[in-house]
Amino acid sequence: MAEQLKNNKIRVLAVRQPWASLIVEGLKTIEVRSRPTNIGGTVAIYGAGHNLTNVEYDNFVTLFYRLMVCGLLSYSDFEITSRCLNEACTRNRILGTVEIVECEKLTSDEMDRPHKHFALDINPNSYSWKLANPIKFDKPIRYDPPKGAVVWSKTVLRDGY
Fold it and tell me: In this structure, are strands 41-48 and 127-142 parallel, antiparallel, or unpaired?
């Protein structure tokens, strides 16, 4: 996989932390977005540099505890997520890659599966981007998206990725 991407332009999807880390760790398998995408295949995941507000942080931790109590996530998932919440060094970095395998209107069944999307607030008119085959890089790559890029940009992954 990494060899296929070497020296080829790849689309980069900006995702706020800790959700970006949860994607490359393989815990987050649905990205909830307000718009559909026609982009499929392998994309790089960029941990956007915006910090969570205190309310977002509290809501995220509360959601995760609820998922653990319900048995939807394990203690090892909790350890991974705790690390993701505290890894400030993964902001402004490409953390790995994932495949977007499908995009469709978010279903009520998916809305009821917070352990797949970890979304804190879902608009019922949102879209479900299905994710598969995450690859987490051993060393995140420093990345400065082009000016004006909000969701998508492109870059070249070089040697070792």
Answer: unpaired
Averaged pLDDT for residues 78-97: 78
Instruction: Give the pLDDT score at 151.
Output: 86
CA distance linking residue 73 with residue 54, whole number of Å: 23
List Cα–Cα distances, 39 to 12, 43, 98, 140, 145, in angstroms: 11, 9, 12, 23, 18
The domain ranges of the chain are: 2-146
Would you state the structure tokens that stand for residue 62, as one six-digit string? 């509360």
pLDDT at 159: 57
CA dist 29 and 77 (Å) reads 14
CATH code for the part of the protein at 2-146: 2.30.130.30
State the DSSP code for 6: B
Average pLDDT on 73-95 reads 77
What strands lie across the sheet with 127-142, from one edge to the other? 30-33, 127-142, 93-105, 41-48, 9-16, 152-156
- What average pLDDT does range 73-94 have in this prediction? 77
